[in-house]
Structures are given as structure tokens and as C-alpha cells.
Amino acid sequence: MKLTKYEHACFTLETAGEVLVVDPGTFSKNFVVTNNIAVIVVTHEHTDHFEPATLEAIFDKNPNAVLVSLSSVVEKMPDHKSSAVRPGDKLEIGPFVLKFFGGKHALIHATIPLIDNLGVLINDTVYYPGDSFTLPNTPVDVLALPVGAPWLKLSEAMDFLTATKPLLAFPTHDAVLSDIGKSLPDYLLPTIAKKVGAEYKRIDGLSITV
Predict the structure, then answer these.
(1) CA dihedral in degrees (152, 157, 163, 165; nearest 10)?
(2) Which domains are present in the chain?
(3) Closest C-alpha to 101, from 157, 62, 144
(4) pLDDT of 93-102, one tens digit each?
(5) What is the mean pLDDT of residues 168-184?
(6) Which of 38, 59, 67, 165 sits at 20 to 30 Å (Cα–Cα) from 180?
(7) Nearest-CA neighbor of 72 among 100, 43, 101, 99?
(8) What's the first-to-final CA gap in the chain, in angstroms?
């Protein structure tokens, strides 16, 4: 599969000529809508992950695309194909096999209510926990690792990487960080990755084969 990383939490996977896009939200300004998108996975309803205008642009070019998300998200897009899922579900759409984990968004503050959140494992290869550090409890080749957020401490990302033990981890969910801020996880996480036999690599704006 070809993995392409866009700004913040958005990335795509392409195989057999079809594309799956994850979390094309408001912070992912460089995301480009193509005409071969088959699946859109949205992990939760926060706008940096779920932007209805972006989804409308995707559906305009890809009327047969399927939105896969929590019921609270798909209910907001009633005019398009969708599939509501929960943690523990498995779904196959075209060349993509999706397994879902999680349950709740990580705590931002005691005064802010928790919302539902999905982690997703794609083709038993790429795992993204959404806005959480929910472990997949299964081997993972590639980990999309959140490294910057109001709900996140970098020590938690370090522990999550250690527990997941992927072959490759790339940073995501970091539009809230400056370029200097991004240098901090990029300095600390390679050492943690090496200890568990993983590689940590920033792939912003790049495409790699996974």
C-alpha cells in the first residue's frame, strides 16, 4: 500500500487503485481530493478530524465513497453512503479491511465532557488510535503516533510507542506544534523506538510503501 501523510491527523492509503482517507479535518490544509477515494474513516467528531465541507468535496468527486465512523458523525452526513461502527467491529470495503478499537476520546480537562472515539487498524498493517492511546493488542507494522495535542503528554506517546512495538512509527496530530515544537518529539522518540526494534520517521508530505 502507498501511505501519504498530510497535515495534522490526515493520511491516505492506496491499494488496487483505490484510496482510503483518514481524518481529513480543518487543520489538514494540504489534503488533495482525488477521484479514486473509496473510503473515508473519521475517528471522532472534533473539527480537526471531521470537516463536513471537506467530506462534501470528496463525495462530489467520489459519489460511491463510503463514510465510516461513529453514529454521531455519520448522522451529520445523511445524504451520503455511510457505515456506523463501534469498537470491536470489523468492516471490509473493496481492498480495505478495517478493525475498530477504543471507545472514548482522551481526557482534555475534567470540565470538558468525553466524547466517543475510534482507533482503526487498516489491512492488519497501519494502526491509528484517533485522539487516544488505546492499544490495539495485536501486532502492528505501522503506527500513526499522535505527538501534539491539548490532551497529550509526550511521555504518554513514548509509553504508547513502547507498548505497541511497531516496525515503523510516524508522527501525526501535530498541527498545534511549531516547527521548533515538532523537533522535540523528533529528538526524543527515535531513541524510544530503537529500544523496541522500531523506526521513528517523519513523513510529512511524503508517500511511502507499507
Answers:
(1) 140
(2) 2-209 (3.60.15.10)
(3) 144
(4) 999 999 999 9
(5) 97
(6) 165
(7) 43
(8) 5
